[in-house]
Amino acid sequence: MALTIDQLNAAAPAQAVALLDGIYEHSPWVAEKALQARPFRSLQHLKHAMAQAVTGASAEQQLALIRLHPELAGKQMESNTLTAESTNEQGKAGLTNCTGEELAHIRRLNAIYGQKFGFPFILAVRGPRGTGLSKREIIDTFERRVHHHPSFEQGEALRNIHRIAEIRLGDKFAHVPTLGNEVWDWQEALSVHTDPGYAELGQLTVTYLTDAHRACAAQLAQGMRDCGFDTVGIDAVGNVVGRYEGTTPDAKALLTGSHYDTVRNGGKYDGRLGIFVPMACVRELKKQNRRLPFAFEVVGFAEEEGQRYKATFLGSGALIGHFNPAWLDQQDADGVTMRNAMAHAGLEPEDIPKIQRDPKKYLGFVEVHIEQGPVLNELDLPLGIVTSINGSVRYVGEVIGMASHAGTTPMDRRRDAAAAVSELILFAEQRAGKDDDSVATVGMLQVPNGSINVVPGSCKFSLDIRAPNNAQRDAVVDDVLAALKDICARRAVRYTLEETMRAAAAPSDAQWQQRWEKAVDALGIPLFRMPSGAGHDAMKLHEVMPQAMLFVRGINSGISHNPLESSTNDDIQLAVEAFSLLLDNLALEQTH
71 falls in which pLDDT band (50, 70, 90)? Predict the structure, then answer.
C-alpha cells in the first residue's frame, strides 16, 4: 500500500525513519535530519527537505553517502547484494543484461573513474523520464563525466543521488507524474523534425521556415486541436496560435507561449517547454468541461533565435507590430530571401500587420521556460521565479594590426591584432565579474587567413554584454569599450565595431510575479527569485503589456543550447501544476 504524506507526518520518529528506508542508500541519517522539518506540506516539500539534509551535512558525510552507492554493473550486482532499489534501477536500465563486451567496458570505466575521483560513478539510470536510460546513454554519460573536474563531479554525483531519491520516493508514494510524462513525450515527438545536414548527424536544428520548421508548426497545431483549443491557426509569420475561449465572448485574454525554432545542434526544451506546458493545462480544462472567466491564448512563436536570418524575436515582435519589412530581403546562407521562404511556406507578408495584438484586450503575458543555467540545479529546486530579463547589447568587431613574420618580428615591434582582442576578453571577463549578475562574452573569435608562423594582422570578434537593468549593462559597456580604445591605442592597432542588437531589460510585473509565487508556494516549493540572463519572447511582449516568467530546472548542470539540455518528468509535472494554479487563482480574482 502506498505511503501518504499524512501518514509520514503522523508517524513516531523511529517509525518515520523506517518508512523512508532505502531512499538514500544505507544512510538513515538523511531521513532523521529531514524529518525535523515536519509537517510536510507535500511530497515536493519532503524531497527538498531530504536534499537540504545532504546539503547541510559535512563534506565527510557527503563523500560517505556517495561511496555507499554501488558501482554500475559491478560485483554487488553479480553477487546479488544490491539493495532492492538498486537492483530495480539497474535492471530497468538493462545493466543486468549486458553483453560481455559492454560489461568489460563499464568495468574499465569504473576503474578509471574510481582512481580519479575516489568514489563510484553515480547516475540516475532510470533517467529524466523515469523509465530507464539505454545502455548506450549510460556509457556515453560515463565517458563524458570521467573528464570532469573532481569538485564539479562530486556535485554532479550528489545531484544524481537526489534524482535517484526522487524516483524512489515516487515509487513509495505511488506518485506518477502523468502530465509531466506526457509533456516530456510531446517534446520527444516534436524533436524528430530537424533541418537537412543535421538529421544525418542525429542533431536537432530547426531554423525559420525550413521544411522541418513547417513540420513542427503542423504538429503543434494538431496537438493544440487534440488538446481541445477552440481555434487553432498558423499566422502570417508562421506563429502557431491556439485559443481557448472564456466564459464570455468579449473576455480579455491571458497570453502565453514561447518559440519552437532552435539553435543549431540545440536542445529539445528551450522554448518548446513553454508551449507544451500551457497546452497540457488547456487539455485538463477541456477534460473537465471547464471555462475560465478569461480567454487563454497560447502561441508557438515561429522565430526567436535569429539563426537563419538576422531577425531575432521575429515571431513575438510581429505580435506587437515590430516586423521590419526590410527583413524580407535578407538572404540566408544559401541565398534564399525571407520573402521567398515565406512564399514557399504559403505565408503572405502583406498580412503581417493584421496579426498585431491590441494590448487592451489582454491581461498580460506569462512564459514558462527551462532555466538554461546551473542555479536551480545546484540549489536542488525545481522551479524559480524570474524577477527580470537582463538587458543586453551585442557587437561584432575587428581589430586591424599588421601581419608580419613570427620569427623575425621582435616582441616589442609587433602589431598583433589577436593579442589585442585577447586582452579585451580578459578585461571584459574581469569587469563583468565585479557586478552581481552582469556577464560579458566573446563567443566568436577568428583570425582571417591565419598561419602558424604569422603575427595576426586581423582578428574578428563578437561581444555580448548583459545585466539585470539597463544602467548596469551600460556601465559595463562603457568600461569595456573604453578599454578596447585604450588597448588598441597602446598596441598601435585600430578597430571597427558595429552594434548588432540592443534589448532593454524587462523587469517582471510585480503583480504577475506574485501570482507565480503564490502558485509555486502552494506546491510546497521554497520560493527562489532570480534574473534571467537569457533573452526571451517575454522581452518583446513586455513592451506593450505586463509579463512575468517561471523557470524550470534543467539537468546536466542546467546546460542549454546543447543536445544535453533536458528536464525531468517530475519537474515538468510541477510546472504544469504551477501554471494550472496560476489559472485557477486568476479565475478567482476575476470573479471576486
Answer: confident
